[in-house]
Amino acid sequence: MRKMPLPRLKPEAAFLVNQIDTKGKIPEWATEKIIQKTKKESYKILDKYLAQRSFDLYLATSLRELDDFTKAEKFASHIEQNLNISVVYTGGLGVTKETPEYDAAEAKGDMERLFLERSQSLLMIAADKFTVGKYFEAATMALSGKPVVLLFDDENQANIIKVRHPLKTLGAVEESYGFHALVNNQDDPL
């Protein structure tokens, strides 16, 4: 049975929501009308995600620039269409209507933890900048005994993770907490 892809904002709208929530620079094209419409759409989509009890894959990637959002959406769509699995990533989901403005960053972190708990596996894809938060997400999933794959564009980064990174040594040997670090040898990871 074919799964329906989860709804998501278009990359431009997801980037806008992220800028609003993180108090970043609002793009010049974002009029007040566009901002309100995008926030309303984000709330609707977030409600659907919060109602979902399980996700097949948590896509972990650092989303800072519009290109990051575009790459993540392309990647998630490709996975959903070709592997018939549900993919969750928090970029552009925003926060709930009830979240006080001063607490948006904390609320976003709470949602990330909730979606990690509800996900069966994690795939971390390369971004311009890996944040420590993404490594913590990978560690959380590995310690939960869930499959974790880290996909790098750079072989040196992958080797550091494979050989020396503390993530590789989580838990006792007999517990087999581990993950796979792979290198993308193509220009397009899809």
Our count of helices gives 6
Distance between the termini: 23 Å
Strand content: 5-15%
How many domain modules? 1
Give the spatial strand order of the biggest sheet.
2-1-3-4-5
**Large-scale geometry:** globular
The CATH level-2 architecture is identified as 3-Layer(aba) Sandwich
- Strand-and-helix sequence, N→C? HHEHEHEHEHE
Unreliable sequence segments? 171-177
Major sheet, described briefly?
5 strands, parallel
Number of strands: 5
CATH topology: Rossmann fold
- Report Rg: 17 Å
CATH class: Alpha Beta
**Secondary structure: helix percent:** 40-55%
Jot down its keywords:
190 residues; alpha/beta; Rossmann fold; five-stranded parallel sheet; 6 helices; 10% strand; globular
Quick description:
With 190 residues, the protein is an alpha/beta fold.
What features would you describe in this structure?
- The chain has 190 residues and is α/β, with parallel strands linked by helices.
- It has a single domain, classed as 3-Layer(aba) Sandwich (Rossmann fold), CATH 3.40.50.
- The chain contains six helices and five strands, in the order H-H-E-H-E-H-E-H-E-H-E.
- Strands 2-1-3-4-5 form a five-stranded parallel β-sheet, sandwiched between helices.
